[in-house]
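Lecture notes, part 5. Sequence design as translation. It can be helpful to think of inverse folding as translation between two languages: the language of shapes and the language of residues. The source text, in structure tokens, appears below.
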């Protein structure tokens, strides 16, 4: 996404490419997040189930529970913050494409959508770093749980 924010990339092209990128990423990232969350949930449930019988399971449980919580936080972040922003970017891109098709790329309406798209792209990038940090934290906490020795 940062490449699409460059000033030399015309806004309507950046908007079109952003819409394409966001639409196609929907086929990869939600299933990946679901798989990671499900894996963490299964490991957390299993260690909880055996924690009364195994010191090792009891030692791993808190970290796996944290990893699961972080995976769920990633999902909440994506649904609550990123998805609405993705939809807004797509809407602004669509409006700009309509303006270009009508020969109105110099209109105030086009410029308003351009400014908002650029602002959302910058905000999306920053917030996506936050989401990525939560995902990485979940992965590292989960991996550290697997290395725990009783």
């Amino acid at each position: 996404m940062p490449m699409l924010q460059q000033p030399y990339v015309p806004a309507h092209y950046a908007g079109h490419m952003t819409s394409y990128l966001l639409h196609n990423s929907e086929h990869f990232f939600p299933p990946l997040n679901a798989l990671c969350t499900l894996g963490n949930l299964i490991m957390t449930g299993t260690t909880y189930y055996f924690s009364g019988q195994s010191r090792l399971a009891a030692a791993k449980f808190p970290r796996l529970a944290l990893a699961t919580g972080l995976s769920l936080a990633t999902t909440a972040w994506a649904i609550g913050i990123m998805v609405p922003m993705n939809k807004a970017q797509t809407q602004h891109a669509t409006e700009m494409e309509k303006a270009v098709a009508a020969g109105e790329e110099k209109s105030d309406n086009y410029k308003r959508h351009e400014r908002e798209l650029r602002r959302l792209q910058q905000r999306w990038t920053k917030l996506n770093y936050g989401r990525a940090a939560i995902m990485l934290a979940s992965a590292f906490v989960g991996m550290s749980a697997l290395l725990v020795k009783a």
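The translated text above is only one of many valid answers, since several sequences can fold into similar shapes. The CA atoms of residues 19 and 87 lie 9 Å apart.
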